[in-house]
Every structure is written in structure tokens, then in C-alpha cells.
Automatic annotation (TrEMBL):
Listed name of the protein: Abasic site processing protein
Keyword Protease listed: yes
Any Pfam family: SRAP
UniProt KW DNA-binding keyword: yes
GO annotation, biological process: protein-DNA covalent cross-linking repair; proteolysis
Superkingdom: Bacteria
Amino acid sequence: MCTRYISPEAGDIERQWHVGGRNPWRGGEVFPNYAGAFIRAARDVVAPERELVVGQWALIPWFAKERKLKFPTCNARSEELMGKASYKQPWARGQRCIIPALAFFEPNWESGRHVPWMFRRRDGQPWGLAGLWNVWTDPQTGELVESYTMLTQNADAHPLMQRMHRPDPKRPPELQDKRAVVPIEQADVDLWLHGTVAQAGSLLRLPDAELFDAGPAPGAISLR
């Protein structure tokens, strides 16, 4: 699961994904339950357009009674989108988004300790990571709160991502359920944002390992 990434600033996002400048965003490191930027299909317009939104990284489902949840929603397993209560409504409604990231981080445990690894693209471009968004209405104040989650997929068979995360000693090597984010390439952004559920589902696939520039994060130290 990804719990830290670096977001580009608004100007770079607007240029890379051809989004109109509607929402100020300074970029920087993003952590769960804090604000982050995402791109979605523009609401209340006829022609397909994109808009930049700033919201909480941890999706607040429609049934939540309060903003602070007792369970994590910063990541959503792609295999559970159609059945899990927190995500099935946004997925069915096509509330998909792109999460811009200059880099994301995952823990490597090959040394027996937690060593943070940084993942960039080898071509120098930012990542466009798949996500879902939702707008939640605070029942006490009526405030509309934007939020989003980052999709993940099983990476047990991926030559790079299977090396991440702490091994589960109770599971065999082929059934560890290691997780990886879902990059959406530039050519597929419109299909992800505007396509049908079936079309979007076809984009939930593991990326080529050659796409990654990965290794211990600068200044990384081993953690217990």
C-alpha cells in the first residue's frame, strides 16, 4: 500500500494533463488524511473536460457519520471495487480520477528492516495514478468535503513490486498479496476519466518493470 507520495505543483499539473487553472495547489509530499490534488472529469459540463481538485487523501464514503473514519481509505484494492461498501458507488458512477505524482514511496524489507524506496518514472515524466473520488456532505454543518483514494492491485507476479512490503510468514511466496499502484498512461487518461466501467477496468493492469526508476530513497535509513 502506498502511504506517501510527492505531488507536482498546480502549474506543472495543468501543463502535463491539460487542465484549466482552477484550483491553487503548491505541491509537495502528501500523506493520508491530508490535502492532495487530483484530476477528474469536469462536473456540470457537456463536453469532456478535466478539472483540478484539492481534497483529502482518504475517501469519505457516503454513509460516513463523521469526517474522521475508524478505518483507512487512502488505498482501495482494485479487486474489491464492485463489492466494498466504501468504493462500489464511486466505481459504478464513474467517479474516477488521476492522482499526479512526481514519485511515490514503498517499504522494502529484503534486509529484514523497513527501508523506504522511492519510485519515479524512468522517462522523467510524472506518474498519473488511478484513483476514485467522492464528495461527502457533513451532516452537522452541511459542508461539502472532497476526498479521494488511490487504487492498488496485486503485485505478487511483478518482478519489482513483489519485492516491496513486509512478507507475511503465514502466506506462501506466491500468495503474499503484495500491492502496487495503478499508473494510467497519458494516452489512456480520457478513457479512464470518461469511459465506461468496463473500459476503465481494462486499464487496471501492472506496468512494465522497465518503466520504473526505483531504489532506496535519498537519505533513507533502515527502520524496525
